[in-house]
């Protein structure tokens, strides 16, 4: 069971730089972006823009996933 962690692989330089920059962003930013996407989607739906509303509404989940990734990078760090 100790072989589950892959300690031989390292992240690439691009990933390290990206994680260093994203770790500086507050986690609340992603939650706010997700809630804003839902609000804009609701507004568009009320205005009768059904397809655009669905498109914008689908942004909420990726924003939340970015927030989870951001939190993991902040707490666990990178290589």
TrEMBL record:
Highest taxon listed in the record's lineage: Bacteria
Which keywords appear in this protein's UniProt record, sorted alphabetically? Answer: Membrane, Transmembrane, Transmembrane helix
Keyword Transmembrane applies: yes
Q: Where do transmembrane segments lie in this chain? A: 25-44, 51-69
What's the name of the protein?
Uncharacterized protein
